């Protein structure tokens, strides 16, 4: 009798395990299919929102999503993509860490017939990239320049008293950094040429002013070094070009540490940013960071979901930009969204009223 119970229980366990591994997996994958989504890191606010937006949108349409974050570690990202290819994902969505480091994985995806979407950051030096969904990175750069033009009133600046700024750029291995910096410099260069904007460090080259992996600690260190090397006398820093909110906040910290914002004649420098993170919204409301650029991750996620669904249904994909993004091996058809400058004046309307952050999150 007890033997009979034991064998019934065993049979049940085997059945459950079998359904869990084989049957369950199979029924999960049928229908709309498994989609692989890789984001660079959980440690930056935006990629969590991006990952969530893509996953939730796909799940609403009935897809199963394997969402992974790569800890800003290239071997981890490589392994995650390899695993997804092995699992047989139907489409791969990749926000890379280093855009040039995944060529083998992209070749394997192509060999397996898996379409690849470069998400936000272009995948470089590979013919095996099917689409690029992002914001118009050059326009984002123009907005970064416009923030300084307005915040520092550059149109009124004179050669008698030039406005003093320092420049920061994004990670050199992220192709977006090129567009951001190019756009910003296209706005700022005319003022530098006229002699109404001055850069005491003389550091302008993108390779020199870049910030590997967008690391705020590295930017803070560089800002501290600039302040002690070029601003220890009477020189006062008026503004900072910064392509990313955590870098902006880190630069402001370095400035505060040497008396900016608390010494007469040394107000906090005007600094913009990007991503509209909660901490920067608070800083903007407190009158410290001057502005940021909002790239609504919900829209990028939604556009990606529509693209994936169209690919899966075999629909013709139309309305793409087929000239702007050459990754070194091909021009990648791109879907480019618009971004918005956020200052204290429009923060409620652009961020809270649209539901990007709640009033309570940003302390409004
Ligand atoms: C993204 C930015 C982000 C930065 C750091 C860039 O590729 O476009 O939105 O601030 O990476 O994560």
Structure write-up:
- Strand 1 (34-39), helix 2 (45-60) and strand 2 (64-69) form a beta-alpha-beta unit.
- The chain is of the alpha/beta class.
- The protein contains twelve helices and twelve strands.
- The model is unreliable at 1-27 (pLDDT under 50).
- The chain is 45% helix and 13% strand.
- The radius of gyration is 24 Å and the shape is elongated.
- It has a six-stranded parallel β-sheet with strand order 2-1-3-4-5-11, with helices on both faces. Strands 7-6-8-9 form a four-stranded parallel β-sheet, sandwiched between helices. The chain has a two-stranded antiparallel sheet with strand order 10-12.
- It has helices spanning 2-29, 45-60, 74-87, 103-111, 137-151, 176-194, 206-209, 216-230, 245-257, 278-285, 297-312, 347-352, and strands spanning 34-39, 64-69, 91-94, 116-119, 131-135, 163-167, 197-198, 239-241, 270-271, 291-294, 334-337, 340-343.
- Beta-D-glucopyranose binds at residues 44, 46, 120-121, 174, 176, 214, 244, 274-275, 295.
